[in-house]
Amino acid sequence: MKAVIFDLDGVITDTAEYHYLAWKHTAEQIGIEIDRSFNERLKGINREQSLDKILIHGGAAGKFQEAEKQEIMRRKNQYYQQLIQNLTPHDLLPGISVLFAELKREHISIALASSSRNAPAILQRLGVMDEFQGVVDPAALAHGKPDPEIFLTAAALLGVPPSECAAIEDAEAGIAAIKSAGMFAVGVGDETSLRGADLIVHNTNELTFELLNEGWQRYCCIREGK
Ligand code: G6P
Ligand code: MG
Known about the structure:
Number of strands: 6
Helix content: 40-55%
Distance between the termini: 18 Å
CATH class of the largest domain: Alpha Beta
Largest sheet: 6 strands, parallel
Strand order of the largest sheet: 3-2-1-4-5-6
Bound molecules: 6-O-phosphono-alpha-D-glucopyranose, magnesium ion
Order of helices and strands: EHHHHHEHEHEHEEH
Radius of gyration: 17 Å
Structural class: alpha/beta
Number of helices: 9
CATH architecture of the largest domain: 3-Layer(aba) Sandwich
CATH topology of the largest domain: Rossmann fold
Mean pLDDT: 96
Strand content: 5-15%
């Protein structure tokens, strides 16, 4: 394992909750109700894909012109940005800063593969920008998760082959993207929504170098057919 690639929302900090609240609020304004179970399907996917899924869910696919959709997304992002403006280093999820330190000690590179265009601002507020040797710009990608492009781009930024990378995700679409990229997939959450992950933890404080490395060794044995 030469690199660990992190998702942001729901892995490094709990902004997945703020995305949910912002979409719930915005969807209500156009007469659509969403709940936490539906929200699982929005995790990891980009803004445009999220709105499309919400419109289909509310039976409103095709109801809005492109300019109206842009306005709905602008409102969601504005509300979301209000929710994240007071983030501080205290908002790092448990265990994450210790894991960054352990990876540094082990000379393992770190990159960010988040679909969020707000990611750089969030890393700044959390005070962890300097931990990353690579941050993928999601606006420069042709395909969103579950396509592997974002994880392959992160590996390329670090100059590490995908077969030497582990990646950590809280979303179904993210785990699928990691597996298609040919990487070791670590899921944060529950088994039902993270099927396909090579290793699952329920909370970020379980994410130690020791656990990742044990999982990595097992994964390599299976991969090599030992
Ligand atoms: C992440 C989150 C999604 C969010 C997406 C786009 O992948 O998991 O819930 O929709 O980023 O975020 P943005 O900040 O660009 O709207
Ligand atoms: Mg996430």
